[in-house]
Amino acid sequence: MSFEKWAPILVVVLANVWVVFAAHTHSQSAIDGLNDRLAERQVAEQAARTEEQARVLARYEERVYARQVAAREAVLAALPGDPEQGKTIFMVCGACHGLQAEGRRAFNTPRLSGQAPWYLRRQLLKFRAGVRGAHPQDLTGMQMAPMAMMLSTEGKVDDVVAYIARLDPGVPADMGEGDSGRGEAHYTVCVACHGRDGEGIEQQRAPMLSGQHAWYLARQLRNYREGLRGYHEEDAEGKLMVPLAQLLQDDEAIDDVVAFIRSLD
Fold it and tell me: Are 183 and 259 in contact (CB under 8 A)?
C-alpha cells in the first residue's frame, strides 16, 4: 500500500487532530480566564465584606464608648460632693498619691483615680475611724489614718471623692513579675466578688482591681494573708478577704494572680 494512497486520509486526520487541539486549547484558555475573573470577583467581594465589617465594628465601638461616657457622667453627676472643694482638699493628698491620683511606689500609695467612688469613700471613712490601719505592723495604713482624720466631716470626704472620680491618669505600666497563666487559675476564686474583668462589684462590696499597680495589689494580698489588713473587728469586708488571701500559700501564687489581674486591662 503506497503512501500516496493514505496521504489524503492522513491529512484529514491531522487536520481534525489540530482542530480538536485548538478547540481544547481555546476552551482551556476560556476556562482559565473565567476562573481568573471568578477569583478576582471573590477577592473584591471579600474586601468589600471586610470593609463593611470594619465599619460595623467601628459604629459598635462608638456606641459602646458613648454609653460608657454617658454612664460615667451619670455616676459623676449623682455624687454628693463638690469637686471644686475636693480639689482644694486633694492638694494635701497629691503630695503622696500624685497630682492625678496615679499612685507612687516611692510613697507606697495606690492609684486612686479610676477606682469606684463608693469604695474610695468607704476606705476613707475606715481610715478616719481607725478601722483600717489598726494593726501595729501596717505602717502604710497607720500613716493614712491621721491624714483621713483631717477630713473632719463626711461632706469633706464626699468632696474629695467627687474630685478624684474626675481624674484619669491612664493605666499603670507595671504588669507584675508573676505568671499570668498560673494566676488565671487562682483568680477563679476572685471572680464572684470582683468580676470577670476585675471591674469590682458594689453589691459584693468588692473594689475594682484592674488598673491598679501590681506592687500595690501584691502588698495588699500579703497584708490580708498575714492579718495586717482585716485586723479590726469592725472591718467586715477586710475579714472576709483574710481567709481568701490565705489560699495563696506563697508569694509566687500572689505574684501570679496579680500578673493575671494586670493582664485584664
Answer: yes
CB 133 within 8 A of CB 202: no
> Do 113 and 168 form a contact (C-beta atoms < 8 A)?
yes
Q: Specify whether the CB–CB gap between 169 and 98 falls below 8 A.
A: yes
Answer for the pair 89, 163: CB distance below 8 angstroms, yes or no.
yes
Q: How far is CA 177 from the centre of its chain?
A: 18
Cell of residue 136, nine digits: 501595729
- pLDDT single digits (tens) 24-35: 666 667 777 778
Interatomic CA distance for residues 186 and 85, integer angstroms: 42
Q: Transcribe the chain into DSSP letters.
A: --HHHHHHHHHHHHHHHHHHHHHHHHHHHHHHHHHHHHHHHHHHHHHHHHHHHHHHHHHHHHHHHHHHHHHHHHHHHH--S-HHHHHHHHHHHHHHH-TTS--BGGGTB---TTS-HHHHHHHHHHHHHTSSS-STT-HHHHHHHHHHHT--SHHHHHHHHHHHTT------S---SS-HHHHHHHHTTTHHHH-TTS--BGGGTB---TTS-HHHHHHHHHHHHTTSSS-STT-HHHHHHHHHHTTS-SHHHHHHHHHHHHTT-
Per-residue pLDDT tens over the stretch 125-157? 999 999 999 999 999 999 999 999 999 999 999
- In degrees and rounded to multiples of 5, residue 251 shows phi and psi of -65, -30
Cβ contacts of residue 85 below 8 Å, gap of 6+? 156, 159, 163
